[in-house]
Design a protein that fits this description.
This protein starts with a helix and ends with a helix. Helix 5 packs across helix 11 and helix 11 packs antiparallel against helix 13. By secondary structure, the chain is mainly alpha-helical. The protein has a single domain, classed as Na+/H+ antiporter like fold (Up-down Bundle). The protein is globular.
Length: 295
């Protein structure tokens, strides 16, 4: 089991570590260009490639999407409760609990832990959460997204293109399937490199609250994911992916939005960095429980 866990987590840690070391050494990394490339081309291609080559049951896709909606709602309420309990700004704490790092970390971990089928389910969770991120998340940062901006978002466009593939069991033409597979293949490595670069730019403060709230975000996310999966009577693989995606650390983009809105960016940075570090220790425990049940 230890060897399997190491095989799952080591690629994530190593590639993100390369990005971190690259940035700390003073080398140039065009973060804005890479982020735009991943958002506009890489991620939509990964979505189409994964969902087209995986025989994903439409009911499983609906189940993971519904689970994501319920988990997101519960975690938002938990964030609001903690903001009052710990006397924190709710616009700081609620997004941290609402939006975990289901892309940069969640997708590769789901792939290496549960295979292509697990990745397809993780993509379903990621796509559903992206709808909240590009609406509620942007609104909380002080910038309301228009319906036109939302409909032009490449990730959401890929969702609309993928739905007929899932529900009508369609196949992409071979030339298009090969193209999106090639483009999608760059996405996860670039996501992890960018994660490492982003973490290198964050300065740690508010260490105590960051560690405490970061641990709560991961553990409560896993618990809520487990409870909702049990209530929905999900199949083991779908349930496992729901728990793992729900237990991801605070997403880096929460920090970027906090900087843009000038809303306690140092506190948000602490939550991002502390929860990511804690995830390296806590996620193996979660995977150790679920991997034997689905493999």
């Amino acid at each position: 089991m230890l060897a399997e866990l190491f095989a799952v987590l080591s690629p994530v840690i190593i590639v993100a570590g390369i990005g971190y070391a690259w940035a700390r050494s003073g080398q140039n990394y065009p973060t804005e260009f890479i982020a735009r490339l991943v958002l506009s081309i890489g991620t939509p291609s990964l979505v189409l490639a994964t969902l087209s080559r995986t025989d994903l049951d439409p009911q499983a896709f609906i189940s993971i999407a519904l689970g994501c909606v319920l988990v997101t709602g519960c975690m938002g309420l938990i964030g609001l409760l903690f903001s009052r309990l710990f006397r924190q700004q709710w616009k700081v704490l609620v997004p941290a609990f609402l939006f975990p790092n289901t892309g940069n970390m969640g997708l590769p971990i789901s792939l290496y832990a549960f295979g292509e089928h697990g990745l397809a389910l993780a993509v379903g969770f990621f796509l559903t959460l992206s709808i909240f991120q590009f609406t509620v998340g942007i609104a909380l940062s002080g910038n309301a997204a228009s319906m036109r901006d939302l409909l032009r978002n490449p990730i959401l466009i890929s969702l609309f293109l993928a739905l007929p593939i899932i529900f009508f069991d369609l196949q992409l033409p071979r030339w298009l399937g090969n193209t999106v597979s090639l483009l999608g293949g760059m996405t996860i490595p670039l996501m992890l490199l960018t994660l490492g670069v982003s973490l290198a730019s964050i300065r740690m403060r508010h260490l105590g609250s960051g560690l405490g709230l970061g641990a709560l975000r991961i553990l409560l996310g896993a618990a809520v994911g487990w409870g909702i999966g049990a209530a929905l009577a999900l199949e083991p693989l779908t349930h496992a992916v729901l728990v793992v995606q729900s237990a991801m650390p605070v997403a880096v983009f929460n920090y970027l939005f906090a900087v843009r809105a000038n809303r306690s960016p140092e506190q948000v940075a602490s939550l991002v960095l502390c929860s990511t570090i804690l995830a390296i220790g806590l996620l193996p425990l979660i995977l150790a429980w679920w991997m034997p049940l689905v493999n």
